[in-house]
Specification:
The structure is a single chain. This protein is an alpha+beta fold. It has 3 domains: 18-73 and 82-100 and 109-277, Rossmann fold (3-Layer(aba) Sandwich), CATH 3.40.50.300; 284-383, Beta Barrel (Elongation Factor Tu (Ef-tu), domain 3); 401-529, 2-Layer Sandwich (Alpha-Beta Plaits), CATH 3.30.70.3280. It has 14 helices and 33 strands. An 8-stranded antiparallel beta sheet has the order 28-25-27-26-30-31-29-32, with helices on one face. A hairpin with a 4-residue loop joins β17 and β18 (341-344). It is globular and about 85 Å long. The two termini are 30 Å apart. The structure holds guanosine-5',3'-tetraphosphate (G4P).
Length: 533
């Protein structure tokens, strides 16, 4: 085994790769923009993605894809700040929400959860959070929009603890909200960072910090607010969870910060603390044990996302991979484990805000996209080491929308089956068959409904097959964990459906949670799983 050089190790050590998750409109884009501002990656008040793009309707989505030739659905932004090299993995929301959103989380070492202070934990956050906890990665909470009327602070924390089942530890504490918002109290330094709305487009966030017991404080906050703050701090010090880096690292305690991304308040404080508390690239599990980027010298990576080019003129694909160890150099030859042969990684690129840029070098912790002539699948391992090993696969996540799909012209059966299988192989959709019949009936499952449109569009444009889709009422799918289960004998509710996936694994489709519970009750010892490896 070759020796990990000091230079490469230093490069990897300074990397911080995290995903940013939230329910749509909580302020993820705004917060990301502000991060980039600190990194000097964009000009003042520049934007990560045009609002028009962020808010696009389904109809113009295809146009955007075609125009750019690459997905707008998930991007990676890299910037430098305070001696760190930061990779932010954006998790697509709204209409773009898909299995890719979940997979992106598999490539991150930690997650930042943005919560709207007036709303608390919302549906999409809950779903994404589940995937983060499954991986035991550190989770940091930024409670945003404090410049608007917010829910009671204790209530917000309770909401996170109850809804998500994670302990919280506020690093700072807000003083009022909305028109009454005066700033945040930093629990460690005992100082108040005064809120000012004037920093919107600048790289300077909060600047004025005053000790709480400073007499000048009275000119900034009303006596009543001060008393409330003192009471709350006392309560918090007495009853709240203490900060523990160990628990944060295990993903069992989430440090909480308050701020307002729009006015750039609390953002830099958050960024500074976050970078200290989060982790450099973590070891990854493989069939030869954990691969630690601080020890393994050779390049290795796994594919977590495949993006088909929507532009018909370029029928190539881009495979996004997370580098797990070593150094990447453009054009290098690596061994593709699942394909069983050497491949050259060409046209490597990183996404920088709106542009793609060609990368010459990248390191453990980084995400790159490489040209894929159609050989990669989600979860594949690439390695430059003489030693052969595979990283633990990426789980298949439960789709939530289902439709029965048929080709309109029966003569096009072959193209239809080929197309739908290829699209499923890329991981854009999942396909299931009736449990007892063959391929005649194909059931498609997706995490986000936009994927149905993508499927239809691609089958028509790339495979010249028109399809009919009839939506099915199922919303829940469960893999069966028991090895030897006889599906014929399994008794569920009348609206439950038995299907199998591409690998022949048995699954159950349910209309509601009640039906899942009934089935569980009627079949003693049945193990139902929300994702499958
Ligand atoms: P998302 O990526 O999580 O979907 O949210 P995004 O950042 O796009 O923010 C959603 C809306 O919330 C935007 O308003 C944004 O300006 C606003 N917002 C974000 N952070 C804050 C904050 O700290 N305080 C306040 N008051 N608003 C915030 P919009 O009107 O939908 O868009 P725009 O027209 O302002 O761009």
């Amino acid at each position: 085994m070759s020796q990990l050089s000091k230079e490469v190790k230093e490069q990897i050590e300074k990397r911080r790769t995290f995903a940013i998750i939230s329910h749509p409109d909580a302020g993820k884009t705004t917060l990301t923009e502000k991060f980039l501002l600190y990194g000097g990656a964009i000009n003042l008040a520049g934007s990560v993605k045009g609002k028009a793009t962020a808010r696009h309707a389904v109809s113009d989505w295809m146009e955007i894809e075609k125009e750019r030739g690459i997905s707008v659905t998930s991007s990676v932004l890299q910037f430098n700040y305070g001696g760190y090299c930061i990779n932010i993995l954006d998790t697509p929301g709204h209409q773009d929400f898909s299995e890719d959103t979940y997979r992106t989380l598999m490539a991150a070492d930690s997650a930042v959860m943005v919560i709207d202070a007036s709303k608390g934990v919302e549906a999409q956050t809950r779903k994404l959070f589940k995937v983060c906890t499954m991986r035991h990665i550190p989770i940091f909470t930024f409670i945003n929009k404090m410049d608007r009327e917010a829910l009671d602070t204790f209530e917000l924390l309770d909401d996170i603890e109850n809804e998500l089942g994670i302990a919280t530890c506020p690093v700072n504490w807000p003083i009022g909200s909305g028109k009454e918002f005066r700033g945040v109290y930093d629990r460690e330094s005992g100082k108040v960072e005064l809120f000012s709305e004037t920093h919107k487009g600048t790289t300077q966030g909060e600047v004025r910090k005053i000790a709480l017991d400073d007499s000048e404080m009275d000119t900034w906050i009303a006596q009543q607010q001060k008393e409330k703050l003192l009471e709350e701090i006392e309560l918090l010090d007495g009853a709240g969870a203490e900060f523990s880096q160990e628990l944060v690292s295990k993903g069992e305690l989430s440090p909480v910060f308050f701020g307002s991304a729009l006015t750039n308040f609390g953002v830099e404080t958050f960024l500074r603390h976050f970078l200290q508390m989060t982790t450099s690239p973590l070891p990854r599990q493989s069939d030869k044990g954990a691969v630690d980027p601080m020890e393994e010298a050779d390049f290795s990576a796994f594919v977590f996302k495949i993006q088909a080019n929507m532009n018909k003129a370029h029928r190539d694909r881009i495979a996004f991979m997370r580098i797990c160890s070593g150094e990447f150099e453009a054009g290098m030859d690596v061994y593709h484990m699942q394909g069983g042969k050497k491949v050259r990684l060409s046209q490597p690129q990183q996404l920088m805000a709106k542009e793609r840029k060609i990368v010459e070098k990248a390191y453990g912790g980084d995400i790159i996209g490489v040209f894929d002539p159609g050989i990669f699948s989600i979860g594949d391992t690439l390695t430059a080491s003489g030693e052969r090993f595979c990283y633990e696969g990426i789980p298949t996540f439960a789709p939530e929308h289902f439709a029965r799909v048929r080709q309109i012209d029966t003569m096009k059966r072959k193209q239809f089956v080929k197309g739908i299988n290829q699209i499923a192989q890329e991981g854009a959709i999942q396909i299931f068959q009736e449990y007892n019949t063959g391929m005649e009936e194909i059931i498609v499952g997706v995490v986000g409904v936009l994927q149905f449109d993508v499927l239809k569009y691609r089958l028509e444009n790339e495979y010249n097959v028109e399809i009919r889709m009839d939506s099915l009422p199922y919303e829940y799918i469960r893999w069966i964990g028991n090895e030897e289960i006889n599906l014929d004998r399994l008794t569920g509710t009348s609206d439950m459906k038995k299907v199998k996936d591409l690998k022949g694994r048995p699954l159950l489709l349910f209309v509601n949670e009640w039906s899942i519970r009934m089935t569980q009750e009627r079949n003693d010892g049945l193990i139902l799983m929300e994702f499958a490896r």
